[in-house]
Specification:
Radius of gyration: 14 Å
CATH topology: Rossmann fold
Order of helices and strands: EHEEEHHEHEH
Bound molecules: flavin mononucleotide
Oligomer: single chain
Strand content: 15-25%
Helix content: 25-40%
Structural class: alpha/beta
Shape: globular
Number of strands: 6
Length: about 140
Protein backbone atom coordinates (compact mmCIF):
# COMPACT_ATOMS: atom_id res chain seq x y z
CA UNK A 1 0.00 0.00 0.00
CA UNK A 2 1.40 3.41 -0.91
CA UNK A 3 2.62 5.39 2.07
CA UNK A 4 2.27 2.42 4.37
CA UNK A 5 4.59 2.84 7.34
CA UNK A 6 6.37 -0.45 7.86
CA UNK A 7 9.06 0.74 10.26
CA UNK A 8 7.88 1.00 13.79
CA UNK A 9 9.68 3.48 16.04
CA UNK A 10 9.97 3.98 19.78
CA UNK A 11 11.30 7.10 21.48
CA UNK A 12 12.74 6.14 24.87
CA UNK A 13 13.91 8.98 27.07
CA UNK A 14 15.21 10.18 30.42
CA UNK A 15 14.33 13.71 31.47
CA UNK A 16 14.72 15.53 34.78
CA UNK A 17 13.49 19.05 34.00
CA UNK A 18 11.16 18.32 31.08
CA UNK A 19 13.07 19.51 28.02
CA UNK A 20 13.93 15.99 26.81
CA UNK A 21 10.36 14.85 27.55
CA UNK A 22 8.87 17.69 25.44
CA UNK A 23 11.38 17.01 22.68
CA UNK A 24 10.63 13.27 22.77
CA UNK A 25 6.87 13.90 22.58
CA UNK A 26 7.30 16.25 19.63
CA UNK A 27 9.54 13.76 17.81
CA UNK A 28 7.11 10.92 18.48
CA UNK A 29 4.18 13.04 17.25
CA UNK A 30 5.96 13.85 14.03
CA UNK A 31 7.21 10.30 13.47
CA UNK A 32 4.14 8.38 14.62
CA UNK A 33 6.30 6.71 17.26
CA UNK A 34 5.51 5.36 20.72
CA UNK A 35 7.17 7.07 23.70
CA UNK A 36 8.55 5.56 26.88
CA UNK A 37 9.60 7.59 29.92
CA UNK A 38 12.39 5.77 31.75
CA UNK A 39 11.27 7.47 34.97
CA UNK A 40 8.06 5.44 34.72
CA UNK A 41 9.38 2.19 33.26
CA UNK A 42 12.79 0.66 32.77
CA UNK A 43 11.47 -2.62 31.30
CA UNK A 44 10.39 -2.07 27.72
CA UNK A 45 9.49 -4.74 25.20
CA UNK A 46 11.27 -3.56 22.07
CA UNK A 47 10.37 -6.61 19.96
CA UNK A 48 7.86 -4.75 17.80
CA UNK A 49 10.15 -1.80 17.04
CA UNK A 50 12.72 -1.55 14.26
CA UNK A 51 14.07 1.86 15.13
CA UNK A 52 14.83 2.98 18.67
CA UNK A 53 15.36 6.70 19.31
CA UNK A 54 17.02 7.32 22.67
CA UNK A 55 17.01 10.71 24.40
CA UNK A 56 18.54 12.27 27.52
CA UNK A 57 19.47 15.52 29.15
CA UNK A 58 23.05 16.03 30.34
CA UNK A 59 24.46 16.79 33.77
CA UNK A 60 28.17 17.49 34.17
CA UNK A 61 28.97 16.05 30.76
CA UNK A 62 27.09 12.80 31.41
CA UNK A 63 23.74 11.54 30.12
CA UNK A 64 21.14 10.67 32.76
CA UNK A 65 21.73 7.47 34.74
CA UNK A 66 18.44 5.89 33.72
CA UNK A 67 19.45 5.98 30.06
CA UNK A 68 22.94 4.67 30.82
CA UNK A 69 21.34 1.84 32.78
CA UNK A 70 18.74 1.12 30.11
CA UNK A 71 21.38 0.87 27.38
CA UNK A 72 23.55 -1.33 29.62
CA UNK A 73 20.63 -3.66 30.34
CA UNK A 74 19.54 -3.93 26.70
CA UNK A 75 22.77 -4.10 24.70
CA UNK A 76 21.83 -7.35 22.96
CA UNK A 77 18.39 -6.20 21.86
CA UNK A 78 19.63 -2.75 20.80
CA UNK A 79 22.43 -4.23 18.71
CA UNK A 80 19.78 -5.79 16.43
CA UNK A 81 18.07 -2.48 15.66
CA UNK A 82 18.58 0.90 14.09
CA UNK A 83 19.42 3.17 17.04
CA UNK A 84 19.53 6.98 17.13
CA UNK A 85 20.48 9.17 20.07
CA UNK A 86 19.51 12.76 20.83
CA UNK A 87 20.75 14.85 23.72
CA UNK A 88 19.17 17.97 25.18
CA UNK A 89 21.88 20.16 26.65
CA UNK A 90 23.04 23.72 27.10
CA UNK A 91 26.37 23.52 25.25
CA UNK A 92 26.22 24.36 21.56
CA UNK A 93 28.64 24.68 18.65
CA UNK A 94 31.95 22.80 18.98
CA UNK A 95 31.60 22.25 22.74
CA UNK A 96 28.16 20.70 22.27
CA UNK A 97 29.38 18.62 19.33
CA UNK A 98 32.40 17.32 21.28
CA UNK A 99 30.21 16.46 24.28
CA UNK A 100 27.74 14.66 22.01
CA UNK A 101 30.54 12.70 20.29
CA UNK A 102 32.00 11.59 23.64
CA UNK A 103 28.67 10.31 24.89
CA UNK A 104 27.83 8.62 21.58
CA UNK A 105 31.24 6.92 21.57
CA UNK A 106 30.74 5.67 25.12
CA UNK A 107 27.43 4.15 24.11
CA UNK A 108 28.78 2.92 20.77
CA UNK A 109 25.97 4.72 18.92
CA UNK A 110 27.02 6.26 15.61
CA UNK A 111 23.86 8.28 14.90
CA UNK A 112 23.85 10.98 17.59
CA UNK A 113 22.74 14.59 17.68
CA UNK A 114 22.15 17.33 20.24
CA UNK A 115 19.77 20.21 20.76
CA UNK A 116 20.95 23.19 22.77
CA UNK A 117 17.69 25.10 22.48
CA UNK A 118 19.55 28.08 21.03
CA UNK A 119 18.75 27.63 17.33
CA UNK A 120 15.93 29.26 15.30
CA UNK A 121 12.43 28.13 16.32
CA UNK A 122 9.50 26.85 14.26
CA UNK A 123 5.94 28.20 14.86
CA UNK A 124 5.39 25.56 17.59
CA UNK A 125 8.39 26.93 19.50
CA UNK A 126 10.61 23.93 18.72
CA UNK A 127 14.03 24.26 17.18
CA UNK A 128 14.08 24.12 13.39
CA UNK A 129 16.94 21.66 13.79
CA UNK A 130 14.42 19.31 15.40
CA UNK A 131 12.31 19.31 12.24
CA UNK A 132 15.41 18.58 10.19
CA UNK A 133 16.14 15.71 12.58
CA UNK A 134 12.60 14.35 12.08
CA UNK A 135 13.13 14.32 8.31
CA UNK A 136 16.37 12.42 8.77
CA UNK A 137 14.83 9.85 11.13
CA UNK A 138 11.89 9.07 8.85
C1 LIG B 1 23.17 20.66 37.37
C2 LIG B 1 23.13 20.78 35.87
C3 LIG B 1 24.26 20.39 35.15
C4 LIG B 1 24.26 20.50 33.75
N1 LIG B 1 25.37 20.12 33.06
C5 LIG B 1 25.39 20.25 31.70
C6 LIG B 1 26.54 19.87 30.95
O1 LIG B 1 27.55 19.40 31.48
N2 LIG B 1 26.50 20.05 29.61
C7 LIG B 1 25.42 20.58 28.96
O2 LIG B 1 25.47 20.73 27.74
N3 LIG B 1 24.29 20.90 29.64
C8 LIG B 1 24.25 20.77 30.99
N4 LIG B 1 23.11 21.10 31.68
C9 LIG B 1 21.92 21.54 30.94
C10 LIG B 1 20.89 20.40 30.77
O3 LIG B 1 21.48 19.28 30.15
C11 LIG B 1 19.73 20.89 29.90
O4 LIG B 1 19.04 21.90 30.61
C12 LIG B 1 18.78 19.78 29.48
O5 LIG B 1 17.84 20.31 28.59
C13 LIG B 1 18.07 19.16 30.66
O6 LIG B 1 17.23 18.14 30.17
P1 LIG B 1 15.84 17.79 30.90
O7 LIG B 1 15.05 19.09 30.99
O8 LIG B 1 15.16 16.81 30.03
O9 LIG B 1 16.18 17.25 32.26
C14 LIG B 1 23.11 21.01 33.07
C15 LIG B 1 21.98 21.38 33.83
C16 LIG B 1 21.99 21.27 35.20
C17 LIG B 1 20.77 21.67 35.98
Amino acid sequence: MEGWETVSKAVIYASTFGKTRKTAKYLADQLGADTFDLKKQMLINMAEYDHIVLGSGIHAGKPYKRLVEFIGNNKGELSKKRVSLFLCCKFNDEKGAAQCRNIADEFGISDATFFSGRGDKNPDGFEVALDEYVSRLR
